[in-house]
Design a protein that fits this description.
elongated, alpha+beta, single chain, 5 strands
């Protein structure tokens, strides 16, 4: 997976993460499953920063589930090291979107990820069209009032 530049109307969101002792595996660096957890945490932080927290998704009766993750590991992260996680929505379809996430340490890539998210109805578990209200928040990057 190559580095992609976010499109101007899909501005990136950045979030700092510091590797903790419990993130370290038997090889002495951050474990693979922790990188995946960070990708998910950055996505949630992005939504919350734009004014859509869990309670808002509950209110509309729908939210995001992962259909697919692609992760490319570029470098190790050790305990105490801080990475910058940057994410943006790369593309939209009726019920899904692709979110890119990159982790960098001192400007060097550590991880690149692409996640396909599907918007589902909580009651039926079936895909549901992404509401224009939610799409507008992520595209415009203006926090919800």
């Amino acid at each position: 997976m190559r580095a992609l530049e976010p499109q101007p109307d899909l501005m990136p969101f950045s979030h700092l993460i510091t590797a903790q002792v419990e993130d370290i595996d038997d090889l002495g660096h951050v474990g693979n499953q922790i990188y995946l957890r960070w990708v998910l945490e950055i996505a949630v932080a992005h939504s919350e920063a734009l004014g859509w927290a869990w309670a808002d998704y509950q209110r509309v009766g729908a939210g995001w589930v992962v259909r697919r993750h692609e992760l490319d590991y570029m470098a190790q992260v050790l305990v105490g090291e801080t990475v910058v996680g940057t994410t943006w929505i790369e593309s939209w379809k009726g019920v899904s979107c692709v979110r890119r996430t990159e982790l960098h340490r001192a400007g060097a890539p550590v991880l690149r990820a692409a996640t396909t998210w599907v918007f589902i109805d909580f009651a039926t578990g079936k895909p549901r069209k992404i509401p224009d209200e939610i799409r507008a928040i992520f595209v415009g990057q203006a926090p919800r009032a």
